[in-house]
Description:
This protein is mostly beta strands. The protein has no helices and three strands. Strands 1-2-3 form a three-stranded antiparallel beta sheet, with no helix packed on it. It is extended, with a radius of gyration of 19 Å.
Amino acid sequence: MKLVELLADGAVFKVEFSDRNGRTYESVGLLRENIMVLHFELASPDLKPEIVTAQAGLTLNQ
């Protein structure tokens, strides 16, 4: 996703989604409240993937 333009005094964002070759396949306008900022952190190459599942009836305050 690439921010292309700020509109309406920063209340609306025009963003483009593109493939790995840089070709735009979608261009949309989004309101500030429709955007979720995600943070990317590189993982160690030694990190082993694991699946974590929740258990029914388990609460954190036991």
